[in-house]
Every structure is written in C-alpha cells, then in structure tokens.
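User: Let's play a game. I give you a shape written as tokens, and you guess the letters that built it. Ready? Here's round one.
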C-alpha cells in the first residue's frame, strides 16, 4: 500500500529531469515542491523503548508529527531524508486532512521508503494547457484531496484577477466515475472539494449532481455564459490516474498565457484556506446549482440541428453496437440516438456501466483498436450488427468499426473517420446552403499532425481549411475566433479519434460524433454503400491519404535534445536535411525555432514553443512527416502521411511507398540503435 512501482519511479525521474528539479534546487523551487524554508522544520529520532523509535517531523508553529516504527528503520529514515524532502513531508502532513493519504506518507517514512517519498515529493505536478493529469495517491506529484484544493485555490485567485463579474456568473464543475479507494480519491470527491473552494469565496458553482461526459462542461460554460469550467477526468488513461481539465469563459480549453498564470497562482496559494476541507458546507448553499437536468435537456435539443435525415434514421435497418468502455457515455449516447429518432444501440452489457476498475480491458482506450473491442465484436457478431461505436471513458472521443464482406472487422483510424465525418458534414451543410457564396465563409480545422484530407476536399470544394497546433485547445479557440468573426465552422478533428461535429461544443465530443456517424452509416446503407466503400470513394475523388503513426520511448532528455539538434544541423550548421535516404525533402517547418521555408520570410505562421520539440518535413513524393516530443510521456512521436493526387488508386504501391518512407525516417532521422531508443511494443 502506498508503493510506487519501478516504472512509475522511472517516469517520475524523467519528469524531474524534464522540469529541472533537483535536491539542490533554489528556495523558490523548494516552495514549488511543497516545502518551506528550513527554519520552519526539523526532524529527530527519539527512543521509545527497546527496539522502537519514532521519527518526529516538526512543522511551523511548534507542533510535531510522530511516526512510530522500528528504531533501525526510523534512524535510517532520519539519516536518509535530505533536508528538502524532510520539509516537504512535514508540510504535507501538516496540511493533509485526508487520513488515507496522510497515513500512507507516515507509513513510507516509518518504513524508510526514501525512493518512494522522493517520487511523491520531488516535484509538483505541472499545470499546463491540459490542466493536470497524474496517478492518484499521496504527495505533490499525484492527484489527491490536497493537490486538488491547492490547484483550485490558485485557479480561483487567477479568475478573480482576470474576470470582474466572477461572483455573478460563476463556474461549472463536472466529473467522471474514477475512484482510487486506497488513497480515498475519486472524481466526485475532487469535484466537491473544488466546489467548496469556490463557494467559500462567494462564487456560484454549477456542480453536476452525477457523472457527465467531458463535452458537457464546455457546453455548459458557453450555454450559461459562465466564467470557467473544470472537468475532473483522466479520460482514457489507466485506472490509477485522474485529471483536472480547465475551460475558459469562451468554452474552449485554456491556452497560453493562462496556463502559466494559473500555475503561478497555484504556487502562491498552497496553504489550504480555512474552510477548504469541509465539503459539507456546500450542501444546501444558495451558491450551489445543479445543471444536470437542464443541460441534458438543452444539449439534446440543440444536437437535433445536426440531424439531417430523421426519416431514414427512424426506418434504419442497421443495428449499432455501442460500448462506453466502463465510462460515462452509455446513457448519453442512448439519449442522442433518441434525439435523432433512431432505435437505441445495443450496449455491450459487460462495459455499459461505469466501473473505475475497467475490469474487461487492459487499457480503457478505444484508440488501441481491436484489443479494446473484443466484447463489442462478439456482441455484434451475435446480434447481426455491422457497425460498432466506441467511446472512451469520458465520452469525448469516438472509435468506429465496420464488418467487412470477409467477415473481418475494420477499425477506422482517427484520420479515416475524420475523412468520413468531414465529407458527411460538408455534404449535409451544402444541401442546406446551396448558394455559391456561402462556401466562402465556411471553415474546417485539423491539427497539424492529422491527415491533410480536409485540405484536399477544401481545395476542390472551395471552403477554407486551417491547421492548428496539436490538441483541441488550439482548434477550439480558433473556432471561437472564426465564429466571432461571423464565419461558419462545421468540423474539426485530430488523428487521436477526437471530433468536433457540432460547434456549440468547442471541444471534441464523442456523444455527438457517435450519433452523427450513425446517421451517416444509415444514409449510406440506403444507397447500398458501406462506410469502407465511401472512404474509398472519398480517396478516389480527392486523392488517397494514407497515414502511419508511432513513437519511440526515451527517458534521457539530453538524447532527445541532441536528436533534434542533429536534424537542425544535418547538412552543416543551421542546415536541415535535404534528403532522407532516397526521399527528397522539399519543405521544413520547425515549431521549436519558428522556421518555415515554405513562408516568404522563412517564419512559421503557427505558434512556436521552445519548451517542446516539433519538426515537420514535406517530401517530393507527397509525403509529410512530423516528429515531436510528448509533453506528458517520455516519447518521441512521429506522424507520417502520403498524400497522392486524385486518380492514383494503386493502394498497394502507395502503402509500400509510405512504409519505405517510414523506414527511412526511422533509420536516418531517429537512428534508434545509436540513440538507444525503445520501439513501441504492440
């Protein structure tokens, strides 16, 4: 209990190196790790009789926290704990009122588990544009009651500084079904503590009374014109994780500089406020509102604006199987189908109810494909269903599978489903907006590492296509800007199975995507066309776009930096590669340095960031490859796509050419053997 496994230690060590924390850090970094100056704390071992001692951690104010244990163990803990760690632990035990996490830390001290204490206290979770995401457990590096309180206090103060009418409009808070009994943490518990923080400051809170899909939070922000939103979820992460996702008053995820401002505000508000731990005070409070019923009603009314073939849906002969993968999506997808006049989909019984243990899957991520969908395939085969819809646990993403004539199941990639949904939404929009001028103010968006298929459709059909940086935070904010300018944004997607099909939610939404995909499949079925056949038709008309994405694991930041610097000086100083094996490079965009040789002044249009590595290469054969580091994992990811001209339908040859390009990129750009990179394991 309370242990940190070796892989977690290695990961936390990687995080520590990334963010430059060390045991000799400055005073400011010590405070960042939850510590106080040394005059406020001391540690001592005192004898308690033969063979037993206690470790006393003295904290500011003269009180002590005693941890009983074996005398040898207590002495070891005292002599092994460096001053910074002693201070961090003592401050934590002073502030933490959750007996489970507090006792876990006391036990680690008593047992002399120095490495595990360092993992818990060496560095605070980094608050970024995605908020927080980490394992649930004790310490500043993990999700728990105290870190939720500290984070919310910082966010609250930041909102007070930046939004004048915060106490009139308020915030919304939602949560999924995750729970971690050993540490006493759960999404609902974290949401209530966050609500307590705001209400203690006189700020109205719209706290959902039950679990809800992530997209309902940004929808509520926009629909009720609130100041901000918080969603407590770790989405598709492993069961031990949780997260804290933040939305700004425009209904989109935060982008810089808000992330930095909130992070600084958190550091300034670490000590829990007087009423921080008493979440009972919110019950019956006039500042607490439950938006569950009204938002459910309004969302499913608004989604009907995107139902274009109600009579076909009502008479559809297609059977759909749906899985929520032990998450929150079941009842909401059922409601979406009813809103579109469909019969409700068949739910995978073993996976339809929320279960924080995710007992039937290794990873609760439908992006993993067939491994997560085994039970769905079994039910579909039994019931004669040809289409499977799968949401991730917080229902903001969607995977789709279709049974082929061979009897095999095809799981569409995120790029393939993006092509289908983009084609479908443009087709439906065009039917209701036939005026030639209308297309000039219509936009679709995709992240820069996603397929360029929307660009090809836009070139042929006349609408606008824009790329953004990776992540829906960028697409949501850009969509908001365009809508404010009077433009029509019909669709946005990312290759990681995220789709914004209805712009009243400025984030990916797996609920709306599921029912819109079902309507598309039902419409095509009336033409005796399958989803797979329609995808081929799209590629025949606009050009084949085939992709291959993967990653390498590397825990050494110096190796990663050198790898990217070598690419920047590949053919001499400040000279990017001109070839990759036999493939000619025709364009380079480096969003770390801001270089883009496709622009007249060689300056990238997209925002740049020196804190992350990201280079995109364009090749003479129509290939595009992006190499980037992950902000949350020790990975170097790559995204490759071969974009063929319309009429080039030799799919086998195109796949071989892409495979050859990927092999060359791995050999010449990644150099995995030289750099000791670990390949992705299937």
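Assistant: Ready! My guess for every position:
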């Amino acid at each position: 209990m309370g242990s940190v496994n070796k892989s977690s230690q290695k990961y936390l060590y990687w995080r520590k190196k990334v963010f430059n924390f060390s045991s000799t850090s400055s005073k400011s970094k010590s405070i960042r790790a939850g510590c106080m100056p040394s005059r406020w704390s001391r540690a001592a071992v005192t004898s308690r009789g033969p063979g037993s001692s206690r470790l006393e951690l003295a904290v500011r104010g003269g009180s002590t926290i005693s941890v009983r244990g074996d005398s040898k163990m207590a002495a070891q803990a005292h002599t092994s704990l460096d001053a910074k760690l002693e201070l961090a632990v003592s401050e934590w035990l002073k502030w933490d009122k959750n007996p489970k996490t507090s006792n876990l830390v006391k036990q680690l001290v008593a047992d002399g588990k120095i490495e595990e204490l360092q993992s818990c206290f060496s560095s605070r979770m980094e608050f970024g544009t995605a908020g927080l995401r980490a394992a649930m457990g004790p310490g500043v590096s993990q999700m728990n009651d105290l870190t939720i309180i500290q984070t919310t206090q910082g966010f609250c103060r930041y909102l007070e500084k930046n939004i004048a009418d915060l106490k009139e409009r308020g915030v919304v808070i939602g949560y999924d079904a995750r729970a971690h009994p050993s540490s006493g943490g759960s999404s609902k518990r974290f949401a209530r503590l966050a609500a307590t923080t705001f209400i203690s400051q006189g700020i109205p809170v719209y706290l959902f009374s039950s679990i809800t899909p992530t997209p309902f939070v940004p929808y509520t922000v926009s629909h009720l014109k609130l100041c901000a939103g918080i969603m407590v979820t770790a989405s598709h992460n492993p069961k031990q994780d949780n997260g804290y996702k933040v939305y700004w008053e425009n209904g989109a995820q935060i982008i810089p500089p808000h992330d930095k401002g909130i992070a600084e505000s958190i550091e300034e508000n670490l000590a829990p406020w007087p009423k921080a731990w008493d979440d009972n005070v919110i019950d019956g409070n006039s500042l607490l509102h439950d938006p569950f019923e009204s938002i459910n009603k309004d969302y499913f009314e608004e989604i009907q604006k995107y139902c274009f073939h109600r009579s076909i849906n009502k008479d559809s002969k297609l059977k759909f199987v749906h899985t929520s993968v032990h998450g929150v999506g079941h009842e909401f997808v059922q409601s979406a189908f009813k809103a579109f006049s469909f019969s409700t989909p068949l739910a995978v019984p073993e996976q339809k109810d929320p279960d924080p243990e995710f007992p039937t899957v290794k990873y609760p991520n439908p992006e993993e494909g067939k491994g997560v969908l085994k039970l769905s395939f079994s039910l579909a085969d039994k019931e004669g269903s040809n289409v499977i819809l799968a949401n991730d646990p917080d229902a903001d993403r969607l995977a789709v599978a279709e049974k082929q004539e061979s009897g095999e199941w095809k799981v569409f990639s995120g790029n393939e489903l993006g092509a289908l949904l983009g084609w479908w939404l443009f087709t439906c929009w065009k039917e209701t907006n036939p005026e030639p001028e209308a297309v000039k103010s219509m936009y679709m968006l995709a992240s820069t590492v996603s397929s360029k298929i929307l660009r090809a459709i836009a070139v042929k059909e006349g609408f606008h296509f824009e790329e953004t940086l990776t992540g829906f935070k960028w697409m949501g904010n850009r969509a908001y800007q365009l809508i404010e300018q009077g433009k029509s944004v019909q669709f946005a997607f990312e290759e990681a199975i995220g789709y914004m099909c209805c712009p009243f939610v400025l984030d990916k939404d797996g609920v709306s995507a599921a029912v819109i995909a079902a309507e598309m499949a039902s419409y095509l079925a009336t033409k005796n066309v399958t989803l797979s056949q329609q995808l081929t038709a799209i590629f025949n008309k606009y050009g084949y776009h085939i992709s291959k994405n993967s990653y390498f694991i590397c825990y050494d930041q110096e190796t990663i930096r050198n790898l990217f610097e070598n690419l920047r000086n590949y053919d001499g100083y400040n000279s990017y590669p001109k070839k990759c094996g036999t493939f000619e490079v025709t364009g380079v965009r480096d969003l770390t340095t801001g270089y883009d040789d496709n622009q007249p002044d060689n300056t990238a249009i997209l925002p740049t960031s020196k804190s992350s590595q990201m280079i995109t290469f364009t090749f003479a054969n129509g290939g595009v490859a992006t190499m980037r580091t992950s902000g949350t994992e020790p990975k170097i990811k790559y995204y490759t796509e071969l974009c063929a001209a319309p009429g080039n339908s030799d799919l086998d040859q195109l796949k071989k050419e892409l495979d050859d390009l990927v092999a060359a990129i791995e050999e010449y750009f990644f150099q995995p053997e030289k750099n000791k990179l670990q390949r992705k394991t299937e």
